[in-house]
Structure formats: C-alpha cells, structure tokens
Amino acid sequence: MFKKVPGTKDILPDEVSSWQEIEKVSRSIFSLYNYKEIRPPLIEEASLFNRSLGPHSEIIRKQMFIIKTKEDIYALRPEGTASIVRSYIENNLDKTSKFIKLYYIGPMFRLERPQRGRLRQFHHIGCEAIGSLDPGLDVEVISLADGLLKAYSIAGYKIKLNSLGCEKDKQGLGAYLTAALKDKLTKLCGDCGLRFKNNVLRILDCKNETCKEIVSGLDIADTYICNECKVHFAKVRAGLDLLRINYEPTPLLVRGLDYYTGTVFEITHPGLGSQDAICAGGRYNNLVKELGGPDLGAMGFAFGVERLLLAAGNKPAVVNANLVYLIALGEESRFESIKLLDNLRKNKIASETDYEDKSLKGAMRQANDLGARFVLILGEDELKKGVITLKDMSSGKQREVRSEGLIKELC
Ligand code: HAM
Hints:
The strands form 3 sheets. The protein has an 8-stranded mixed sheet with strand order 1-5-6-11-10-9-7-8, sandwiched between helices. Strands 13-12-14-15-16 form a 5-stranded mixed sheet, with helices on both faces. Strands 2-4-3 form a 3-stranded antiparallel sheet. Helix 6 (135-151) runs parallel beside helix 10. It has 411 residues and is an alpha+beta fold. It is 39% helix and 21% strand. The structure holds histidyl-adenosine monophosphate. Histidyl-adenosine monophosphate (HAM) binds next to strand 6, strand 10, strand 11 and helix 12.
C-alpha cells in the first residue's frame, strides 16, 4: 500500500468544510480592505528564493524542494512573498498601479522534519501590500491580521512586534552582536555557531536555553535604530494603540528571512506547543528593488492554515443543513428518481439518494447521518397515486404531497 509523503496531509471530506469556511471568511475580510487575489505558480526559479530569503536563511540552507531539469534549477515555493514580488515586477503591475494590495491562498513546501504544526506541504493565507512606506499601512496590515483572527473566532493569541530598522541599522546591530558574542562562541549552540558567521541577528531568537540566557545579558535596546526608523515605529505603535490592538513589544524578534526591514511581527497561540506561530510578517522595503523593480516599500504577512485550524480546535464537520434525501423503492421508482433528482438540483435543492441498495431502515439511517432536512420516499404506491411521501426530519412528521407541487413545498 502506498503512503503519503511524510509531512503531507490528506485533507479529507470531513475536514474540507473547515478549510472552505476559513477561505471564505478570509476572502470577505480581504475584500473589505480592498485586497485582490493573485495566484502565482507553485514552482519558481530556485535563485529567486536564494536572492530574496538570503543564502544563509534556514529555508535556503535546509528546506528547499529542488527540481533540476537539464537546463534549469527550479524550487517548489517555500513561501509567497518572493513569488509575488517577482510577479509584480515581471507583469509591470507598478506601471498600472504603483500601490497594490494582493492576497493569496495556497500550498507552500519546505523540507522540514515533520512534527505537530510543522509540515512539508502546508498552506498560507497571506497578503502583500506593495508601493508604500506609510506607517499607516503597517497599522492596517497588522489590524487586518487581527481582524482575520477575530473573524475566524480564534482567541487567546499574542501579537509580538518589533522594528529591525533599515538595512544600515540591521548592519549596526549585527556588528554589535558580533563584537559582544565573540567571547561566548563556545557556549552557543551548534546552529548559533553557524549563525554567528552568516546570520548573526538570528541568534537573538534562538530557542536554546543557554543561547537565550546569553542573549538576555546583552544590551540591545533600540540603540541601533536610526531616527527615521524610530519615528516610523512610534507611529505604527500609536496607530495600533488607537485601534486598541494588543501587542507585545519584543526586541528580540528578528524573523528568519533576509528581506525584512523595519516593522516585523509574529502572532503566537498557546494551544500549539513548540510550533506556536500562526502568522508572521513585516516590511520588506528593499526587496522590490533587489529583484529588479522600482524602489518601493512593501509589507505583508502569512498565516499557516494548518496551525490556524489547530488553534481553532476541532470543530464538528459542517453538515449540509438543507439536504433532501430521496429513497426510491423498486425498479420503476428508481428509474423515476433519476428525473426527480435532476429536477431538485435544477431548482437548487441539494439532494442525495441511496446508491447502495439499502433497506428502507438503512436508507433512513443514512439520511439521518448526513443531517438531511427532509426525506422523500417514492415507492410503488406513491408512483401509482402521483404523490411522494415527504418526511420532515426535525419533527418526524410525514405526509403525501402531489409530485407537481413538491418543489414549492421544499423551497
Ligand atoms: P514564515 O514565518 O516563514 O513567513 O511563515 C508564515 C507562517 O506559516 C508561520 O507563522 C506558520 O504559521 C506557517 N508555517 C511556516 N512553516 C510551516 C510548516 N513547515 N508547517 C506548517 N506551517 C508553517 C513567511 O513565509 C513570510 N513569507 C510571511 C510574510 C509575508 N512576510 C511578509 N509577507
């Protein structure tokens, strides 16, 4: 028997309704904020991600699904931001509308060690607003993430917020960390040993207890943030305060991808264990230019849908509350039921019948399991009389109705 690839998941029919619900809610909230959907391909040139996320990021070093053809090296996309910026530039979207708000829903791929909430194929619901440096946009993007969580009825989450400052500020902080950690190298974990050489900022959010202790002894404050970035961040915070959005200033939040500058945030949920981030995002003011486009500020985020569902808890499968279940007894009735079902569906009445030759009792049980609102029984007697038996499943009452008047009765 074949088994699914580790770290992938079959989204079974019982679960699909929760996915559809989350997608439906997301689309309606995105449209409230005037975001338009974009659907880039799932494969891109591998070098796009290398350039955007940084060669020393965890994703590039360890987690890329690479596809080699004779001439090219492609990658299954590990995230959406780089693809969307590529698409924005390649399709000249800046020429038609310099400022644009885009959202996306779809699978992402990372070659991770699978565990609860950490998959190799997972799904993002994300957005990217490209073409503005306005701090009001940061406020709107974070409030959109908050609004989505409220619309999903998820509570108890925490928004962690920080500013990395501009590229120059990041370099300043990097230089300070290199100097401050030089003597402590032997005490850092293996990963941080590597980060020290390639990606020193990431030592700040290492989860290893010893690294955390070393980092807590450092004086990082916001000394490395330039005045312009400080003013920007103060405006972002003031805007969030105005909207009464709760957030926790988190100076050690650095995020793992090179493209981030300025405001960064992460939303965690206590119900998720070690993989507790349900959403992450921030500004990437240099990426559009870096990938060959104009010099434009941008900001976005992505929710991990599997983690959202874990945070939401296992909701019962949604039943089709208006389903009509048709039980046809006998050869002639069965033939007649083909037309009847077709007619119900043409009149937009969701309907199902028994294709397993069940007894009347078995078919009634099936109708009950499906949560049907009405059961229709068409036997020889009914056929002769030109009627159909209509049973209301909530009251248990049943009566005969004329076949011609059935649709009216059900609408
Ligand atoms: P990220 O933090 O890599 O950011 O991913 C965003 C979210 O995707 C995470 O917070 C988590 O919920 C979910 N996630 C990530 N990896 C996995 C996994 N292996 N299994 C299940 N869920 C996962 C980004 O991807 C950025 N592109 C976000 C962004 C958009 N920044 C600006 N715009």
